[in-house]
Amino acid sequence: MIPKQIFNPRRGHRNSPPTLLLIITNYIVSALLFTTISPTNWFFYVVLVCLGWYNYYTIRRNQDEIIRINIIAYTIGWAGIVFLFFVTRNM
Questions:
Q1: Quick check: 76 and 23 in contact, CB under 8 A?
Q2: DSSP letter string over the chain?
Q3: Is 10 left (phi over 0), alpha (psi -120 to 50) or beta?
Q4: How far apart are CA 78 and CA 81, in angstroms?
Q5: Cystine design at 77: which of 23, 29, 63, 65 (Cβ 3.0–4.6 Å)?
Q6: What is the pLDDT along the chain (91 residues), one digit of tens a residue?
């Protein structure tokens, strides 16, 4: 246990917001999916459905922290994932 005199966290300081962690998770899972599965098969769709459930659960759990800038970042993140999908499929 660290004594309070050595490590005193800042008041009101939160680490990375859950939306940023969600975007990072989406990119990691999508990049692994797009690069490892060359033909789109049933496993691809199962993983995407699971990722959608995870997104829904995370957004519902952290609904009070969702603000306009987070929604914009989340939407741009998904647009980037769709772009990544088309880039990896056309190579």
A1: no
A2: ---TTT--PPTT---S-HHHHHHHHHHHHHHHHHHH--S--HHHHHHHHHHHHHHHHHHHHTGGG--HHHHHHHHHHHHHHHHHHHHHH--
A3: beta
A4: 5
A5: 23
A6: 566 666 666 666 566 778 888 999 999 999 888 888 777 788 888 988 999 999 999 989 988 888 888 889 999 999 999 998 888 887 7
Single-letter amino acid code for the residue at 51: L
**Which residue reads 């998904």 in tokens?**
78
User: Which amino acid is located at 87 in the chain?
Assistant: V
The first and second tokens of residue 56, run together, are 């829904």
